[in-house]
Amino acid sequence: MQKTYVLDTNVLTQAPYALESFEDNHIVLPLVVLKELDRLKGAEGEQGGNARQVIRFLEGLRLRGSLVDGVPLAGGGTLRLEVNHVDVPLPRGLSPYSREGRILKVCRGLLDEGIPAVLVTRDIVSRIQAQMMGVPAEDFTTDRMPDDGRPYTGRADAYVPDALFSGFKKKGIPAQALYAADESGRQLPLALTENQFVVLHSDTAEKKTLLGRIRDGMAVPLRRGGARPFGVRPRSVGQQFLQEALLLPAEEAPLTIVQGPAGTAKTFYALAAGLELVLEAEERQYRKILVCRPNAQFDQDIGFLPGSEQDKISPLLRPVVDNLEILLDLEGRKEKRSEEELRGRIDYLFDTGVITAEAMNFMRGRSITDTWLIIDEAQNLTPRQVKGIVTRVGRGTKVVLLGDPAQIDHPLLDERSNGLTYASQRMKGSPLCVQLTMLPDECERSALALDAAMRM
């Protein structure tokens, strides 16, 4: 049975391809949505670009027929503009002139005509208001991880026949020899993914363990366990996996995705590895470190702020500077440096171009080569933004996506629809991507931070 979907503006400004995602069903755009697209088309950043893309798509349809009467879509459905239902009453407290009110009028009017209309909006409050009016409402789910899907962690525990342990470091262990076990000790099949990290337990002595990574059907040993990037030593199994993921060359693994709660050294370790490979390596592997953090206020333009681009985005980069202070503080010294000395060393890194920072708004159209690219707080990116970043990577660049899907500030994203989760699911199993989720008990920020992470 065909349905009629009424789309909110926020669906189109976040996923302009949505107009082609409803198969053979019908799409209705209230007139207020068209007006909002017109208002947003001049905006900088993702919103403006997406609004312009949708308007161009609508222009293509207009040339084929009347948008008010409806134009056929490639999937078998239709798209039309709705200009009626302006007199549909709303519950007291809802403004009839607001965007939400005018869209809800259209939905309610279509339902009263016997048309099975469903409101599609990324705004949770709008879905609640729709329920108040008896209007079915749902989120746009094309780029959302299924609600019953388990997040990919990039790590697993496995049991191995003890006889295979001795040859692990020389030739690895076939992945089919690894298995899981239930509480009774019964062997269970273990589905493993390319580049997944594994803690290998002997089947005769569980505390006898080895660390490895799945590569081409084999569990192979970690190759960089003895490295000390910028003097940093891994303090947990998770950090040993993290170090391996970060230090793999761009030719082998140009994308690293690291998720996990605050305090698990995601940003700290990414900066340490980058500084090691840019400054300390015998053969410099990257020209520079480029750090980006999204503006959580929905791609809000920063142009009205005073100063240069660096001045404007410096508040967003404060956590990065904090980690640099820690890395530089005791470098080769037993005594702590003064604030002035630390500030001078950090300024030197930025002034000489060893580290640069850019706003996400200005990443569109870039082609980034030979760069250690850190995208911090990537959970506040949309799926389209993540795709835009990864597809701009040129030769010799390594992209490090960092974030915690449990701490999202973007008003239209959640744990299953954000760009970090989207990238994790889509890149799972890619031989060019290594992923890892840090665990709460691997928090290294402080004893208090660890205790709070476990209790709160």
Keywords:
456 residues, alpha/beta, Rossmann fold, Archaeosine Trna-guanine Transglycosylase, Chain: A, domain 4, 6-stranded mixed beta sheet, 31% helix
Report the top-level CATH class of the largest domain.
Alpha Beta
Count of DSSP H/I helices = 14
CATH topology term of the largest domain: Rossmann fold
Taking the sheet with the most strands, its summary is:
6 strands, mixed
- Kindly, what is the distance between the CA atoms of the first and last residues, rounded to a whole number of angstroms? 47 Å
Instruction: Give the averaged pLDDT, no decimals.
Output: 90
The name of the CATH superfamily of the largest domain reads P-loop containing nucleotide triphosphate hydrolases
The dominant shape is globular
Return the domain count.
3
Per CATH, which architecture of the largest domain? 3-Layer(aba) Sandwich
Strands of the widest sheet, in order across it, are 3-4-2-1-5-6
Whole-number radius of gyration?
A: 26 Å
Unreliable stretches, pLDDT < 50, 5 or more residues?
none
Beta-strand segment tally: 19
What is the helix fraction of residues, given as a range?
Answer: 25-40%
Task: Indicate the proportion of strand residues.
Answer: 15-25%
Structural class, by secondary structure, is alpha/beta
Query: Quaternary state, please?
Result: single chain
